[in-house]
Amino acid sequence: MYSISNYTKNKAKELGLKLFSSQNPKKKLEVYDERTGNFIGYIGGGGYMDFYEYLEQEKLGNYPKGYALERRRLYYNRHKKDISKVGSKGWLSWVLLWGG
Questions:
Q1: DSSP structure string for 19-75
Q2: For residue 16, is it within any domain?
Q3: Which of 18, 39, 68, 81 has the fewest other C-beta atoms within 10 Å?
Q4: What Cα–Cα distance (Å) separates residue 11 from each residue in 25, 39, 95, 96?
Q5: 1 is a domain residue
């Protein structure tokens, strides 16, 4: 089960969202509108690391310094079309999981 970072929790609260670790093993998070309780969608690939997981691994010495930033840059390049649509699942992934 995915452990939600403090950054992600705080950013979700700022955006008026409620997050839960996904019961779907292919996804990381379930996202809900905090005001209405409506389900927005699943975000984050369950089999992949995100920016905050890479940062943690850097701190533990499992990756060289700067590796997380490089992975973030590559993620952005792959997903920039999805990221540009504010409120979309792609945008939510970028903002919540990649610190965009």
A1: EEE-SSTTEEEEEEETTT--EEEEEEETTS--HHHHHHHHHTTSS-TTHHHHHHHHH
A2: yes
A3: 81
A4: 23, 17, 8, 6
A5: no
Beta bridge partners of 19: 31
Residue 61 lies in a domain: yes
Average pLDDT, the chain: 95
In a domain, 89, yes or no: yes
Q: How many domains is the chain built from?
A: 1
Query: What domain range is 23 assigned to?
Result: 6-97
- 9-33 core/surface letters (b: 16 or more CB in 10 A; e: else): eebbeeeebbbeebeeeebbbbbbe
User: What was the pLDDT predicted at 2?
Assistant: 87
63 has pLDDT over 90 = yes
pLDDT in tens, 3-38: 899 999 999 999 999 999 999 999 999 999 999 999
pTM: 0.90
